[in-house]
Amino acid sequence: MHGNGRRRERDCKKKVGREKKFFAVSKLQHFIMFGSSGSRVLNVINISYLQSRSKRVWVRKPLGSPMAKSKIFRITPKPVIPEDEKAEMKRLFDNYKNSMKSLRQYFFEQSLKQAESGEVAQMKHRLEDQEHERLMEENRLENEKTAMLREERLKIQAEKTQKNVLASLIKKEREAKQHEIQIEDFLTKQMSTPFIQPENIEKAIEDALANPVNFNFALDLDGYVYRGKETSIDMIPEEKRERLNSN
Amino acid sequence: MPLYELSLTLRTLSRPELIASLKRSAETILQQGGVLRQFVSLGTNPLPFKMKAHNVWHREGTYFVMKFDAPSSAIENLNDEFKRDIDLIRSHVVRCEEPVKHECTLEEEMKPPAYRKDVQQLIEEGRKVIRHKFKQNTPGFDFYPFQK
């Protein structure tokens, strides 16, 4: 029995510990549950401000929470300002703005003048002038150098183009000559092939009819040629036989 | 003016009629600005099939060829003229082109593949091993300058 009682006590202690832990976990859970649809109150109230129970603390709505339902259709009245007061305020404002602007401009100009007239500024100006002169001189020298180079380059280029033009001219001349030769060749070729004069037509027709031609021919394996309607080598006399030679 | 070849198939005619008909077609060529080059007769032969021309059936025809130079614009007119000539069964104008020159390579082609030159070239090409060599991009050095 005694032993049992001790065990019970231990169990009780364990339970207490568990409860405490559970409380902590639930707190955390509430904190996380803002976005989701948990309990409505917890959605609005930030629990982190509710630590002390004795004092009442101003509780702020969390960022992003919606407008209260009762205030959705409330329209705040515009402040009513009388016309003359408005005009007066505008005048005062304009005066203020103008005077501030002119003051700012004045101070700016003063500061510029000071910067110009000081000894350091003079020194700076002198140095700048000297630097400018030096740079101009350098630029002049560079320009002269590039001009010289350009002249040389252009000279070489001109020579080259002259050479090219000469070459192309010679080529063109040669081609023209060749073309002429070709034309002459063509003409001689044309003249060499006979053509029938209009007055010789009848004679040419008679000649052609007198010598009919047959372009058909056949070959056998020995290379013998059979013209027209010849079918047998025996029918052709030996001196008239034709034979193709394979090289 | 390109060279053309006109092949005519005429119906069987007596000799003077045939000459007159051929002369007529030759003259039409001349009228269209042509120049006659050559006349070739292929004789009177049976047609390959019976042909109808100008409402008459023909089984035999005289074949005749004329070679002539003419402007290409004249060919249409010539065809039109010949179509209306009742002595002609068929007519056709072809442009003569220079024959294509071929070199006979039969002997080379008849060899077995291993002896053919083009096959040998292919084999040689196939034997070449092309390996991609990595470029080190180190100009001026013939060794790798960094730690390996």
UniProtKB/TrEMBL annotation, chain A:
Cross-referenced InterPro entries: Ribosomal_mS26 (IPR026140)
Keyword Ribosomal protein attributed: yes
Keywords: Coiled coil, Mitochondrion, Ribonucleoprotein, Ribosomal protein, Transit peptide
Coiled coil: 113-189
GO annotations of cellular component type: mitochondrial small ribosomal subunit
Subcellular location per the Swiss-Prot or TrEMBL entry: Mitochondrion
Protein family (similarity comment): Belongs to the mitochondrion-specific ribosomal protein mS26 family.
Descriptive protein name: Small ribosomal subunit protein mS26
Record organism: Daphnia sinensis
Gene that encodes it: EOG090X0FQ9
UniProtKB/TrEMBL annotation, chain B:
SUPFAM superfamilies: Ribosomal protein S6
Single GO MF annotation: small ribosomal subunit rRNA binding
One Gene Ontology CC term in the entry: mitochondrial small ribosomal subunit
InterPro entries: Ribosomal_bS6, Ribosomal_bS6_sf, Transl_elong_EF1B/ribsomal_bS6
Domain of life per record: Eukaryota
GO biological process, any: translation
A family per Pfam: Ribosomal_S6
CDD domains in UniProt: bS6_mito
Similarity-based family: Belongs to the bacterial ribosomal protein bS6 family.
UniProt name for this protein: Small ribosomal subunit protein bS6m
Organism of provenance: Daphnia sinensis
